[in-house]
Design brief:
The chain is mainly α and 97 residues long. It has 1 helix and no strands. It has one helix at 2-49. The protein is rod-shaped and about 85 Å long.
Length: 97
Amino acid sequence: MFQLLYPLVHAIEPYLVPLCFVFAWSLAALFVLTLWTSIQSGAAQLKTMHQIPCTDCQFFTNDYHLKCTVHPSIANSEAAINCRDYCPQKNAYSATE
């Protein structure tokens, strides 16, 4: 059985090393590209999440059951980025009195 495959193996043997070389480097490049893409999308998502003003609003309760007394359905979500009822908290340590 293996005597029949012997000529076939010797015919493709010169092409195996370059083919494996290209395949290995392509796989490494694909991994780096996937890693770079996921870092970019994560940074974009992080930038969006930092625009949510809920934690600085005076209507934010920081309670699991009722996060916001005005808009509980959109509190701490991307829909709250341009909340028209946002009112900053009064800071006890502010310089202006």
